[in-house]
Description:
The chain is α+β, with helices and mostly antiparallel strands. The protein has one helix at 31-66, and strands spanning 2-6, 12-17, 76-78, 81-83. The chain has one domain. The two termini are 13 Å apart.
Amino acid sequence: MHELETSGTAEVTQLRPAPQAALWEAVVEDAELEELLDAREEAKEQLRAPRQRFKEADERARAAIERLDLGADAPVRVGDYLLTRRSVKGRSVAFETTDSTRLYVRTLKEDEL
């Protein structure tokens, strides 16, 4: 699907692809909802870098902790931190689920298509 951009007249100045989710997609014009979704996406983007920094810091800390060769269930103090390795026995886990729906929210950026 393509969307036409015009310069305010009837002539076409540029033809560019417009993202389309499905052949028979529905389009809802709701400015308030779109603003809320934009705010959600912005907040999500702002979390990406801090989460990545935490993940990297956590991996480095855990690698350093592994060098200590902690025994099971024996607490070790490091400054203001208490490290404890707990033994967890294996077990069988089974559960049932019920029918449900899931709501997926994603952007339709051209670079993601």
